[in-house]
Amino acid sequence: KRQDMAVMIARILNGKNIPVTQTAEVFDDDNSISDYAKDAVYKVRDAGIINGYNNNQFSPATSLTRAEAATVIIKLLNVLQ
């Protein structure tokens, strides 16, 4: 799921002490994001690793496609360098 991926990526960022300036903007489906994942979702978004869909939806319970997963991995590697 997208929210679980965000949690894993946020843990990597935290473990590497990567600073991320978080904004107050929320996704339109913020109430669908589980409480345990909210901070991670916004941290990963604000780090530029994952985006919402065109209609400002995060779709937290949706599985990532292979293309989305590859994009997330590439963006994460760029942030870590």
Give me a quick take on this structure.
It is built from three helices and no strands. With 81 residues, it is an all-alpha fold. The mean pLDDT is 94.
User: Span between N and C termini?
Assistant: 26 Å
Mean pLDDT level: 94
Question: How many strand elements?
Answer: 0
Number of helices: 3
Shape: globular
Structural class: mainly alpha
> Helical percent range?
40-55%
CA-atom Rg in angstroms: 12 Å
Give unreliable regions as ranges.
Answer: none
Work out the strand percent: under 5%
* Major sheet attributes: none
Order of helix and strand elements from N to C terminus: HHH
Written account of the structure:
The protein is mostly helical and 81 residues long. It contains three helices and no strands. Helix 1 (2-15) packs across helix 2. The longest helix has 15 residues, at 66-80. The radius of gyration is 12 Å and the shape is globular. The termini are far apart. The model has no long low-confidence stretch (mean pLDDT 94).
